[in-house]
Amino acid sequence: MTMDALTRRRFLLASGVTAGAALAAGAGGMGIAHLLRTAGQDPSAARSKKLVLVTLYGGNDGLNTVIPYTDPAYHSARPELAYDAAKVLHLDDALGLNPVMRGMKQLWDEKRLAVVLGVGYPRPDRSHFRSMDIWQTASPAEPVTTGWVGRWLDGTKAAPEAAVSFEPVLPPVLAGQTRAGSCVSVGGLELPPGITADAVAALGRGEPGEPELQARAARAYGDLLHVERLVRGAERHQSPSPDNAGEEVLTTGPGSRSVLETQLALVARCVEAAVPTRVYSVSLDGFDTHAMERAGHESLLTRLDRALSAFVARMARTEAGRQVTVVVYSEFGRRVRANASQGTDHGTAGPVFVLGPTVAGGFHGEQPSLTDLDDGDLKATTDFRDVFGTVLASVLDADPDRYVGSGYRTKPLPLLTAD
């Protein structure tokens, strides 16, 4: 006597095979196989502009990312953390990138990197949760239940695959009132002892006449195996050529690359397959650098630099990829003065990166003063809604006034070149 399909599913759930299945079967969940099946359904998908949001969770230290290396106030406020001018990757005669960000420096030299300076919001909040909520909902004045991309999904009556997160849970930015983006797990499949891939594959085979939700859960198990194959097979093995000589080979998979690289590799796979997704959300965690910041922050920036530079290089090779714009942000910067633990505490404004083939490279906005401070923190010189409003208009062809906050009118920034 064989175990029926439903009992087998319950058995594997109890055994711990739940990572992507529960997510894919739940609200806002979508399997990668389903997402890739949408490829080719919209002939214009390869030509449509696309936005990739990269969230740096924890509060990135903007002053040690885009470094005011000639400012005496920078060196006096954080003598143990400040970088010598000779080590900084100079962008101009006042500002430069952290020494580990060599890939981003190359993108700057190629005019494919824009740095928006001093980005923040009025009356800053130093809580991780509240500040990230503000950035993702574009509502500094009061809490709201929808994200600015989610409101765009509502307004355009978009399909679930129009916005996709490759993060463990659906971020608030993709949640609307009547619509929501989809969340696709990239964790791969980790089988407990005694459970084989064949057993999981059996759960992906539907049973005649079963309810739709049960069938959807079954498909999710099949998607788990598909995710595993995609993650392990997202490698780009290319022989050196005049066009890509010196480029880092993009290899992703468990134990080989960072989570962000894996997420961006799957974004690239979807873009190249011409799925109709217009917005992707990915993330990198760990930026809450209260103690012994220098080494940990450099490690994080190395991962960020490697992932972004490889992704932008890959996107430049195809027509679909050349329609991609990347925006990198964090919920706040850090305080100007270092703390007693050789780290930095929660601050306010920081830089935002915008990358891609159609980006108007260079600085945008004004670097905040390190001496004219608000209780020890930087005063924002650019409202974050100006950045998001600009990409809404330029990338998503949407009216920014409709989606970035009640009563707020954005000032367009020249972040992207004309078509």
TrEMBL record:
It comes from the Bacteria. The keyword Signal applies. Pfam families: DUF1501. Residues 234-254 are annotated as: Disordered. Residues 1-24 form the signal peptide. Keywords: Signal. This is Uncharacterized protein (DUF1501 family). It comes from Micromonospora purpureochromogenes. The lineage of its organism: Bacteria, Bacillati, Actinomycetota, Actinomycetes, Micromonosporales.
